[in-house]
Request: fold
Amino acid sequence: MRKLIISLHVSLDGFVAGPKGEMDWIKLDEEMFDMVARLTDEADTALYSRVTYEMMENYWPNAANLLNASKHDIEHSNWYNRVEKVILSKTMKDIKKDKTAFISDDAAAFIKKLKEQPGKNILVFGSPGAVHVLMENYLIDEYWLFVNPVILGEGIPLFTRLSKRSSLTLVTSKAFAYGVVALHYKVSR
Reply:
């Protein structure tokens, strides 16, 4: 069975974005990009919420062609262009696009079937709306949380609407420059 893996940045107080979706507090560096590249190497499907997909779609298809494209830009752009994309959206349901499925109804059933198909991992970057749906339906197998040294006080919370306890097992942790700590957890079932 394929694994569904979440990768996102979170503030120390548990928010994935500010109250207006701000992400200017997120710290990144080349070492983190290399870690993410290892995650993408093991995934052939990307899952996004509508908002995150629109942000990704505005940059990644052509990022490798930019004049000053970094190693990460080139690698991630190539990955983005070759993988299947699943978009959870109530408003984009009638759109047809190559290598992209827009799911507006019964997302949990669709994701359960997707996980049963042969293939590599399913990777979710950001996409708090999609993550909340996945959490509510206990579909997440692993979390990669990049805890940033900031307290936002308010914003979009990572954990919400869970009806039962989920136990996690810490697989690894790594401290990066700028005080960011990556925590890799597997969901204990």
Notes: The chain is about 30% helix and 30% strand.
